[in-house]
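Archive entry. Fields below.
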Amino acid sequence: MAKIICKDVVKDIKGHRVIDGISLEMDGGKIIGFRGINGSGKTMLMRLLSGLISITEGSITIDGKELGKDITFPPSLGILIENPAFLDSYTGFQNLKMLAAIKGEASDEKIAETIALVGLDPTDKKKYRKYSLGMKQRLGIAAAVMESPEIIILDEPSNALDSSGVDMLKVILQKEKERGALIVISCHDLAILKEMSDEIYVLESGKVAQYIKEEGQ
Amino acid sequence: MKALLKTELHKALKNKYFFITLIIASVIAVLGAINRINEYQSVLELVNADKAAHGGVSWRNPYLPADTLFTYWIGGECFSLYFSLYFLLIPLFAAFPYGWSYFMERKNGYVKNVITRTSKKSYFLSKYTAVFIAGGLAVALPLLLNFLTVSCFVPARTPSVLYSAYTYVVFSQMWSALFYTHPFVYVGLYLLLNFAFGGLIACLCLAISFVIKNRVAVLVVPLFLMLCLNFANTYSRSWELSPINFLHPGVVVNPANGWIVLLEGACLFAVSFGVTMWRGQRDDVF
Amino acid sequence: MMFFKLAYFDIKNSFNLEWKKLLVVPIGFLTVCFPFYLRYAKIGAGGFGDFWLYMFGGIKEYTYDDAFKFPVIWTVVLLYLFYITLYYPYNDLLGYGQNVLIRSGSRFNWWLSKCLWNAFAVVTFFTLGAALVALFCVFTGGPLSTEISPLMYTEVFEMAADIVYPSYTVGTLIGMPLLTAVAISQLQMLLSLWLRPIFSFGVTAAILILSAYYLKPFMVGNYAMPIRSVEVIPNGVSPQNGVIILSAIIIACIVIGGIAFKYYDIINKEN
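PREDICTED_STRUCTURE:
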């Protein structure tokens, strides 16, 4: 099971401190929630954890290996950060198949199963450019989980989802958690976050302002 | 509509791309001015050396009417790198300040906020005007800066017809009579012409935004169109077809013909304004 | 292995996204070839080498004797190529490419695959262009050789009558413009990591104009103009030196880009 340790992580962008000395530990088999107002640093922290941006100070270690030094990206990772981005001229299935071909860890059956799990039709011939926002979001979630990664990072996954979509999301996250994945999510809706997360960090101005451990999760 | 126009002008003239473009174009213009001022100083040294060698009297013709502000500014010469670079990049200078604005506002949804508060006609009219002014200023102001810089160092002698071999203004060139009689008016007219075409080229980006969905293409297609006109020019033996050349006050390849300039300007206006207003009012806003 | 997967993916993906831009290539090449044929074929020019030189010859050395007329055809052809290769890497990085990148596990592999894609795109463009010109020659009955008609130099490029009229090898006539285009395109891609694509395109345009204006070995655009070769004019640029300089530029872009990309923050920049 994966373990992420952040130690005094600082990130400056163009002279502006967006992450200011965050230290936390996250273990596999849990859902870690992040909450905060716009600009509090949630998305930036997720980008740091996924290796898309580098830290200014401090360290992030994943299973004992330092990100940016020992490893460039977490070895087993699925992400959905900001808006989902796929190729307009392909179907949902084709998009996921091309991504899966990179590591070769997900078969066609697994891809189809995952697409069905998020409430889309794996045999749908509709091109991605014709998808609604909610469908795009679902496909983004499918891309993040289809290879059964050890770390899953989802930034505002409930955006554009209807109530059935949110239920779907809860089921998927619970299943991944039981598999032993470490899931990091952010959400504006505290109720959804409380329902899904084992631990919640509230961020303010790039710092951890509050830590809430949910009992009985 | 007045308030909308004011807002659009504010957005057009106080955005960083307008300033970046102005700076880049001005750097080229000023470097061109410095280059030509240095050349003039060399010419003066030669004349003075000649005078000094002959008791204060020039033995050679100093060609004074050929060495004038109107042949030393960027619009009066056709052989420096700066003139070539500046006039080639005019389509980019025009497009860059605000030509992209409708494309981006439609992409990020901002246009919805405006159109629901006013009419499509007002929005597009204001947009067209602001884009025109921003594009025109980005092209014309650095030229003016070059002219003013050179004017501080090179005297504004009226060019002489007797020295026409040393200017790039031939008799068949548009407004050539003015060059030899009222050169300031000639320069002023060309500055206005550059302003107008700069604005029209910028508005062409606006029209292209309705058809092309790529931001870089929106900015770059006018440059390619102008270069294609430049290519067509190689097969024209009499008149200048390319705006890249006829916007220059001197003759680069062929002399400028007023009717062709007017026709091309009218076509640019018809296409840019027509497409913007027609498609702007007809298209759905998503 | 991962690198080849990424490169294959890039080539396939970019073709699907950008094939419409390639459609302009035959239209453009034929638009140039046809008037040339009508004007010069009657007086002896009409072989593959003549057409190709018309496209990629550039202009003769500029000597301040007359107004500077920049090489329109040469500029348009090369600028269009650089426009085709401009936006794909940047766009990919801010969108779908992020998912590809984290799955690949290596930033350097991603960058290398983009460099390979870039070179492949340039080679495809030149191959397509050469095929079109060859086809045009076949239809018009012109010879498929790299022989250049002497009037190309005197009539088309207005050069002095006493210059050397070389028989170009394929390497000099096609290879040097291709290698130059690869080098400048790689440089454009490297610059777009820091500048926006439109600015790096502006730098590319400036390199072409500066090269047309100044005949100097370090103005790399000169190597893409066969009529400025030392084989034609005594103070021309040497193809041998060109290969060394251009190869160095390509390698430098790959290495510098690889190092820079290692620390590159992948954030959706404001538009």
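CURATOR_NOTE: The two ends of chain B are 23 Å apart (CA to CA).
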